[in-house]
Amino acid sequence: MSLSSHQIVTDLTALIGAHAVIGEPERMGGYVKEPRKRFHAQASAVALPGSVAQVQAILRWANEREVGIIAQGGNTGLVGGQVPLRGDEVIVSLAKLDRIRAIDPAAGTMTAEAGVILENAHKAAEAQGTIFPLWLASQGSARIGGLLSSNAGGVNVLAYGNARELTMGVEAVLADGRLYQGLSSLKKDNTGYDLKDLLVGAEGTLGIITAASLKIYPKPEDYETALVNIASPDAGLMLFQALHERIGARLNAFEIVPVFGLELQLRHGFLDRDPTAGPSPWYALIEVSRMKGGPGGALQAAIEAVFADGLIENAVMAESLADRARMWAFREQMSEVQSMEGTSIKHDVSVPIAAVPQLIAQGIAAVERLFPGIRPMPFGHMGDGNIHFNFSQPVGVDGKAFMAEADEMVHEAIYDIVLKLGGSVSAEHGIGQLKVQLLQQVKDSVALDMMGAIKKALDPKGILNPGKMLGI
Ligand SMILES: Cc1cc2nc3c(=O)[nH]c(=O)nc-3n(C[C@H](O)[C@H](O)[C@H](O)COP(=O)(O)OP(=O)(O)OC[C@H]3O[C@@H](n4cnc5c(N)ncnc54)[C@H](O)[C@@H]3O)c2cc1C
Q1: Does the beta carbon of 156 sit less than 6 angstroms from any atom of ligand 1?
Q2: Hey, what domains does the chain have and what are their CATH numbers?
Q3: Model's pTM, two decimal places?
């Protein structure tokens, strides 16, 4: 028999204290409202455990009483994984577990608890002359547990990999309350299945991550940053390949943005001035790092070479920290500025890098055929083959009515092209509750069987993030 909300709050209070339990719906706003405003279910309670032992106690109780549990970090996820689906779940916020337990620059490791805000992990690493190179626009709020559970990407994947590649080991509480002590700083460990890789990217469906050992790297001496005018995504791909050949692993970021993105940011006052070298249909934001004592000017030299080859016609290099900040703001404000233009239909997709131009050309053609006047806004991590393929509503139409008519048809058109090009329907945001059905439609059936078997083995009562990802 399912417990009443009142009983849930009473039980949680007995376990972790009244100060750490929120039972009143009017105080839960910050935990149940998510960035895309698509999901609106309430929770039975919000619990804020202050120790790993308290997380264990909550899960032991929840497993016994079959109460659905949703782990939550910074609540910045874009697919609704961190907020309720049914309305009777308990949100377990890891916000209070926010200690950096250890940091060892010589070994290149940092052990951080799940509730550490990414920006604080950056500061802790930098205080030791190192970096934790996971950078994304939500870094002021997103927390280590959430970032790992959604295997976050961001703008530095090209050089350092995504969250999974930055994780050496995790500590996690299983559905029955047992603690998996998998913190590790081993570079090599072939003792059976890689359980860390299973928990990273599991979106809270297999366990609650309480801490992680993370890779940190020597801090580059400085960065060279440029905004290059490119005629098309095809030209962008050629430029990426040419720069990669010349610069190799020091090429940290290669992001593309269409001119429509610049127009919106200038129109809505998001940029104090145009950071580009002048009008162009597309722009590439490129960044290269220089390590201590290493030669400078690699990006400048490479850009001069491709200019001489006729691959590009115009570019501007950042000459100050303010220039660099403005260039990055141009890229990072893309999601936010779109909301100033009414509703938009969004996709976080990836294809093999060589297929990015086809994806963009075919996607724009297909969707413009369906809805003339729709405004395409594909932008993002070209260097990873990951494009945020967004479309703003046509000017002058009712946003809600347009979404009702267009949302599904546009998704179908884009996902169809992505799959034909051998791509993924979720490059970095995950499945959550947004893409549960889509996953069932597009994922290999053997892979789905394997994932279902793992879920049932680790969470037989289905208490961890019920209904999310696999829909069970
Ligand atoms: C402006 C903006 C920009 C963004 N840019 C990017 C980007 O460039 N790249 C990118 O990858 N993402 C991006 N995101 C998405 C989001 O920031 C990431 O998915 C981030 O990793 C989520 O971290 P969080 O702490 O907010 O997790 P939450 O949103 O709280 O949770 C995300 C998922 O992880 C689970 N979870 C949370 N904590 C734990 C835990 N301790 N143990 C187990 N499961 C847990 C939740 O149940 C949920 O399924 C962006 C979001 C915003 C709002």
Answers
A1: no
A2: 5-93 (3.30.43.10), 100-218 (3.30.465.10), 224-335 (3.30.70.2190), 342-420 (3.30.70.2740)
A3: 0.94
What's the CA gap between 61 and 69, in Å, rounded? 11
Whole-angstrom CA distances from 72 to 36, 85, 390 are 16, 14, 26
- pLDDT over 70 for what percent of the chain? 100
What pLDDT is attached to residue 155? Answer: 87
Is the shortest distance between the CB of 362 and ligand 1 below 6 Å? no
Res 1: pLDDT: 59
Q: Is 143 in the pocket of ligand 1 (CB under 6 A)?
A: yes
Residues 163/77, Cβ–Cβ less than 8 Å: no
- Characterize the bridge pairing of strands 222-230 and 282-290: antiparallel
Taking the centre of ligand 1 as the mean of its atom positions, its distance from the CA of residue 31, in whole angstroms, is 13
CA 56 to ligand 1 centroid distance, Å: 22
Q: Does residue 143 carry a pLDDT above 80?
A: yes
Pocket residue to mutate for ligand 1, from 78, 144, 167, 465, most atoms within 8 A of Cβ: 78
